[in-house]
Design brief:
two-stranded antiparallel ribbon; 92 residues; 1 helix; binds zinc ion; alpha+beta; 6 strands; two-stranded antiparallel sheet; 15% strand; 15% helix
Length: 92
Amino acid sequence: MDNIHIRCPKCQWEPDGQPYWQCTCGTMWDTFSTGARCPHCGKVWEKTQCVIHAGGCNKWSPHLDWYEGLDDVVEKLKEEIKESWLVPAFER
Ligand SMILES: [Zn+2]
Ligand SMILES: [Zn+2]
């Protein structure tokens, strides 16, 4: 997972690990540390807003769009899965 960069897909602003986001339950946390899930009530946020007071653009984007390089990782995993053929024990 080293080649994944998190940044706003609209303005390229990069979150710095601060708890900028607030859930409707009042919890403030870094949404990228939990994959958009509120650590308090468990609500998963499909869209994430860019943080304007930290230098961002204030626009909403799907949470997964913030992960640059994720497509490559998924493709690589698919390749690895394709190469590993799991056979039932009785065929050995
Ligand atoms: Zn919550
Ligand atoms: Zn932005």
